[in-house]
Amino acid sequence: MREITGHTVLTGLLGSPAAHSISPMMHNESFRLLDLDYVYLAFDVGEKDLKTAVEGLKALGARGFNLTMPDKNKMVEYCDRLSPAAQMIGAVNTVVNDNGLLTGYTTDGIGYMRAAEDAGVRLGGKVMTLLGGGGAATAVCAQAALDGLRQIRVFNIRDSFYGRLERLTAELTERTSCKVTLEDLADEKALARSIAESDILTNATSVGMAPKTEGCLIKDPQVLRTDLIVSDVIYNPRQTRLLKMAADRGCRTFNGMYMLLYQGAAAFELWTGKKMPVEQIKAKYFSA
Ligand code: NAD
User: Fold this and answer.
1) CA 280 to CA 223: how far, in whole Å?
2) Is 213 in the pocket of ligand 1 (CB under 6 A)?
3) Best exposed site among 11, 117, 122, 264 by fewest CB in 10 Å?
4) Other CB atoms within 10 Å distance of the CB of residue 66
5) What is the mean pLDDT of residues 54-67?
6) Is the Cβ atom of 161 under 6 angstroms away from ligand 1?
């Protein structure tokens, strides 16, 4: 890392827990590689202390910060402006501080779209079946709709996310050229039909994430045709049960690792105006 000086610019992460995050490594190494006088620190801050922490960072002149669970939704209240995608999903994972004016962005969806591109998958004009309606799923859904998918069929269980999802899917259909619909994940026939009519199936729920790696929302492998693309936003484990099942069926797959990388790269660019040296970061922190 570069020597810390009186000019060093502060960036960081707010969330709880925050210490396990790969973001400090990814950003500090990028600052070092580009010889930028910036530093990125992780702060364990939950929703209760978020307002105080944000006011503190603003007073200290921090350039910006990331938000992780549980702070992504609450942060919306403390932003002066929101990007269109952040406004639609009601969540922020990146804040830019321009002399006291805080703008909230969501870069998770951008990260997903760039990860797809990286895997050689062109999503423009395609039909997606999307499992999930939480933070990751809504970010993917909004960005994919804004980036020109033809149709997104969201499936979620009837939990606390469902009502909000009804509003979001209606709004996305109205405001973009993508048709976004919502169905109950418990309807297995509707899900199988949707997958049969889709180019890509994406799991954006936490089902299958460590430590409960046995979880998988697809019960019948037969619904995964060879020409279906299957992706998972989960990065731990790198190959979820769903991705294993899909690979065994001969489908092209990609996981959440590069989504994580590219959401960080998008934040990095918002703060510094420079491109993150992603190939070097990939080689150092994201290789198998
Ligand atoms: P969240 O709590 O906001 O949403 C969880 C989603 O999972 C909801 O849609 C919920 O309905 C669904 N769900 C939970 N239990 C379920 C069950 N038993 N059956 C069916 N659906 C169920 O969480 P999130 O922030 O959206 O995170 C979801 C996953 O995405 C996590 O594994 C997280 O690590 C991952 N993620 C990855 C990245 C990345 O950069 N790759 C970024 C953000 C999140």
Assistant:
1) 38
2) no
3) 122
4) 29
5) 98
6) yes
Assigned token pair, 262? 């590219």
Choose the catalytic residue: 48, 51, 72, 219: 72
CA quadruple 185, 150, 137, 67: dihedral, nearest 10: -170
Our answer on whether the CB atom of 65 is closer than 6 Å to any ligand 1 atom is no
Give the Cα separation of 106 and 67 in Å (integer): 10
208 lines ligand 1 (CB under 6 A): no
**Cβ neighbours of residue 56 closer than 8 Å, sequence gap 6 or more:** none
180: nearest Cα among 105, 129, 223, 115 = 129
Nearest CA to ligand 1 atom 40: 260
Residue type for position 83: S
3 state SS of 9: strand
* 72 is known as an active-site residue: yes
Ligand 1 proximity of 134 Cβ (cutoff 6 Å): yes
Contact 141/203 with Cβ under 8 angstroms?
A: no
Mean pLDDT value across residues 171-178: 96
Q: Do residues 267 and 243 make contact, with C-beta atoms less than 8 angstroms apart?
A: no
Name the one residue in this structure whose structure tokens are 């492998």. 221
Distance of CA 46 from the midpoint of ligand 1 (Å): 19
In the predicted model, what is the mean pLDDT of residues 128-147?
Answer: 95
**pLDDT value at residue 2:** 76
3-state SS class at 223: helix
CA distances 183 to 123, 210, 254, Å, are 21, 26, 24
Residue with tokens 């960080």: 264
Nearest in space to 261 (alpha carbons), one of 100, 101, 73, 119: 119
Find out whether 112 and 259 touch, Cβ atoms under 8 Å: yes
Ligand 1 centroid, distance to 47 Cα (angstroms): 19
Q: What is the pLDDT averaged over residues 6-17?
A: 97
